[in-house]
Amino acid sequence: MHHTSLIATIVAGLGLAFVFGAIANRLKLPVLVGYLLAGVLVGPFTPGYVADQELAPQLAEIGVILLMFGVGLHFSLKDLLAVKTIAIPGAVVQIAAATLMGLGLAVALGWSVGAGLVFGLALSVASTVVLLRALQERRLVETGRGKIAVGWLIVEDLAMVLALVLLPALSGVLGGEAPMEHAKGGAAAGGVLGAFALTIGKVVAFVALMLIVGRRVIPWILHRVAHTGSRELFRLGVLAIALGVAFGSAALFGVSFALGAFFAGMIMAESELSQQAANETLPLRDAFAVLFFVSIGMLFDPMVLLREPVAVLATLAIIVVGKSIAALIIVLAFRRPMSTALTISVSLAQIGEFSFILAGLGVSLKLLPPEGRDLILAGAILSILVNPLLFAMLDRMLPGMIAKERAAAGEPPMVAAAQPHALLVGYGRVGKAVAEGLKGRTPLVVIEDDSERAEDLRKAGFETVGGNAVKPEVLLKAGLDKATHLFVAVPSPFEAARIIEQARVANPGCEIIARAYTDADVALLKTAGATHALIGEEEIARGMLARAPRKKPPAAAH
For the whole prediction, is pTM greater than 0.85? Predict the structure, then answer.
């Protein structure tokens, strides 16, 4: 017997996602719009092929695990603790505000208070995948704003884990059907307090185990595997640790897969092999993240837009407007800059995976009516579609806003060099080495969209322009028209190609040098207009050969 459901689901999901993602990109729309549309087409609410309704969400869960693992690799316990004073109270207050708004809408629709609480909780928690994809595309994960957003997300995940445990215990009190194990003892007779204490205890035990045991065992395993010299075994070891810790944390401690994977990545980040681990898991992370969006599209019934248009718009307003305003006020109340407040509020203006789990649990407990789940799904789909547009608006606003914030703080304005100069895009490990090498040799302007790195550059005496170099206005602000050389040190070859294409049009005589990883990257970058595209391994080999023993001249004949 041939079990083709898994293969068919993956092929249909990735194939249609590619087709519609390419169409969306061609139309200048976010590619995830195409992924969601692909999911709608293979879902049960449209004619034609229907993908496996149980397999698709499980494949999507792998995407969530790998994505949170990747974020953990660029995070540390110090980063998490540094934002706890705003992330914990901020997330708690924002969840409470969104839950109250959802409760108000539910009461207006004639639902019970219990249904309103489940509905409001489902609207209060942001999607891990959507938020992190948006931050990663803008290279914001390692910035101060990005760390607050990720910390906020972790607190939300913990709160939802607690809600999923407490809902069955409270179901009978809230007007639903109490499960048998809770109905016997009674929720009020210690069931709620017991469930709460047990959940907190499990979370504390998991965190303690990861910090005490995992902190020693995971890096040790990684180093032992690396010393085998097998790249294939190293990649397999990284994936086994990420998926194994995520599954174990859920099975043994009751925390979410995402939270377990995040801690696995955060512990692995303490190893010097963390960057290699991140690179090895990147292709799988991207592929399964696509399947996440396809699985979301499969859940969506387009007819709900016709059946309940007013309720759908009200739900969307709570997610996009209500939550955003609540987060904005909270962040400003902590005396953070408007740029940080807007980044956090836009990041949270959508809902995702935990919302669906809560909705499913609410329906199974007879707390939430089926139409409530339909509204949550519609709100999720529409908010995920709207979120990239909000980020696009934010991208246009932030450079000027940050400049005003710097001026108000008495910091010098960012003014590009008005004379012939070299231009460097990206101040990571490669960019930093280039900047140090050019110091004193030629005037240099650096473009960096990470505000903290930009600040380090200014302190080091480099003229710096903040922003993403993909945008033509940022390149022009950095004086591209007077640049003799452009060094593109960003790690993504696709982002580098877009920068190079625009730079070559604006300054045909500029010499453009870019970094690459493969021969295919070299071809892409040179097609875009790069003068030189250098592969790191080849340059290392040349450096080694330059230090190799010279061939001895033949002995003179006597």
Answer: no
